[in-house]
Amino acid sequence: MTNPSSATASYSVQGMLREYLSSGKLAEVVYRDSAGQICLVHDVIRDLFSRAGQDFLLLGRGTMLPFDHLITIDGQMLSDNAG
Q1: What is the arithmetic mean of pLDDT over 23-41?
Q2: Looking at residue 32, what is its pLDDT?
Q3: Whole-angstrom Cα distance, residue 61 to residue 78?
Q4: Per-residue pLDDT for 7 more than 70?
Q5: Which of 7, 22, 29, 52 is the most buried (most CB within 10 A)?
């Protein structure tokens, strides 16, 4: 069995993200920006979508994050990119 790419969300993570999406609940999102710096924001998840085989998260303020840049949402680890 192959491991899923870190660029795409597993089904369980997608389900959790869709719960945030449908509820409009504020989330603490920790991610790495394009310069590699760790960022922390509190925002709502506006959309979850895929383009060219990669999943993206769109935050309420318009920030678009590739899934492989996400580290945690409300303290829950999402990827192996934490450092």
Answers
A1: 95
A2: 96
A3: 21
A4: no
A5: 29
